[in-house]
Amino acid sequence: MQKVINLAPIPICNSQKRPSVKILIISDAWYPQINGVVRTLQSTVEELDRFGHEIRIVGTDSGRWSSFPLPSYPEIKLEFFAYRRLARVMSDFHPDLIHIATEGPLGWAARRLCLRLNLPFTTAYHTRFPEYLAARTPSFFANFARIAAFAALRHFHAPSSAVMVATASIERELKAQRFQRLVRWSRGVDATLFRPYDKALPAFAHLPRPILLYVGRVSVEKNLRAFLDISSPGSKVIIGDGPDLVVLKQEYPTVNFLGVLSGENLARHYAGADLFVFPSTTDTFGLVLLEACSAGLRVAAMPAPGPSDIFADGAGRDFVAMDLDLGRAVAAALQLPDDVDVPRAFVSRFAWEACSKQFLIHLQAPAPKTSRRAEGWRERIGRSMTRAISRIMR
User: Fold this and answer.
1) 48 within 8 A of 85, measured Cβ to Cβ
2) Phi first, then psi: what are they for 33, rounded to 5°?
3) 70 three-class SS
4) H helix count then E strand count, the chain
5) How far apart are CA 270 and CA 295, in angstroms?
6) Where are the beta strands (DSSP E) in the chain?
7) Shortest CA distance to 98 belongs to which of 90, 108, 106?
8) Could you read off the pLDDT tens digit of each residue along the chain, which spans 394 residues?
9) β-strands 163-165, 67-70: how paired?
10) What single-letter DSSP state applies at residue 314?
11) How many whole angstroms from its chain centre is CA 59?
């Protein structure tokens, strides 16, 4: 897997197969960030490359003068004034399909360019920014901040041929906010990497059992205190980084904060735990839930978008406990049979191959105005980009 450096678009994989479709993805979230958006895009483009397509991702160029760290999230850099650079990418790559993955400054620049060039594009709703913003806003101002955020996001996604959402809950939420052309794009898990390993993990050898594990960003919107304040037997382990890490380490000295882990090391830590705890109520999906299940863990969660969708209709009743009181959910989950084969069997329905096929179908959705107007756009794309970009670059 190659990384995007200096924002020059490069193929994700060096496949020897002749690509049938050229796909350009623009995302403010990309390497070196570690989060659900990046993992989703990485897994999707690997599958699309395997299908024989050519994919290029444009991410933030942290070396440019116009790149700045996101307030409260110094590990996340955003790039401003990227319009001309994206125009050069379009001119060099001549994509058949365009997907704007995020609503950051890079996404807004790509949106503006596509509209100017009259090029269809799709978008995705990966992050519940209105809820994140409300969580970081004084209570008397939170509702206004949430309304304003939805208005901005509705405007961003309005020209999209298809707005991809991960779950039914998020689809209903956005429909209530008058978003249009919503389509479902599910998620998957690498069941070969995330699997039951030996419980005898050296990092956990000194910890009293049961080991309660959280994996994800350490920040206010993840509702981590709901987990850390629980009085329960055993040990609590936090894997991840974020703006609240230093403060929480000081406030909860008995909790084990292990920082960021990845790959097989992360997978082994999942498998070495006894219970996965998911306190967030603001996620759109929760890839870590699938990873935990694939590792054979029982799950305790809040009944919120993400867990409520993944484990809908009692699908996880044999290994999942959900309750508005997270302490009760943890206690109930620990009473469930600890059988690694049950969550493994459940998670087998979540395959990246099927998700990537969904994504490819949605990329080809007709443009918003009329289906007819979208017909033949691939034949016109080269001519329109060449003329328009030459004017932009003058």
Assistant:
1) no
2) -65, 150
3) strand
4) 16, 14
5) 6
6) 22-26, 54-58, 67-70, 73-79, 97-100, 122-124, 163-165, 182-184, 211-215, 235-239, 256-259, 275-278, 298-301, 320-322
7) 90
8) 333 323 333 333 444 545 589 999 999 999 888 889 999 999 999 999 999 999 999 999 888 888 888 777 777 889 999 999 999 999 999 999 999 999 999 999 999 999 999 999 999 999 998 888 888 788 878 889 999 999 999 999 999 999 999 999 999 999 999 999 999 999 999 999 999 998 889 999 999 999 999 999 999 999 999 999 999 999 999 999 999 999 999 999 999 999 999 999 999 999 999 999 999 999 999 999 999 999 999 999 999 999 999 999 888 999 999 999 999 999 999 999 999 999 999 999 999 999 999 999 999 999 887 433 444 544 455 555 555 555 555 5
9) unpaired
10) G
11) 14
Nearest Cα residue to 190 out of 298, 284, 264, 124: 264
Q: How far is CA 151 from CA 156, 157, 164, 177, 179, in A?
A: 9, 10, 18, 8, 10
List of domains in the chain: 22-188+352-392 (3.40.50.2000), 202-347 (3.40.50.2000)
Q: Pull the structure tokens for residue 306.
A: 């993400």
Q: How far is CA 205 from CA 199, 253, 330, in A?
A: 9, 18, 22
Token readout for 157 is 């996604």
Residue 394, both tokens: 């003058």
CA distances from 113 to 110, 360, 370, 374 (A): 5, 22, 20, 17
- Residue among 230, 256, 255, 237 at smallest CA distance from 331: 230
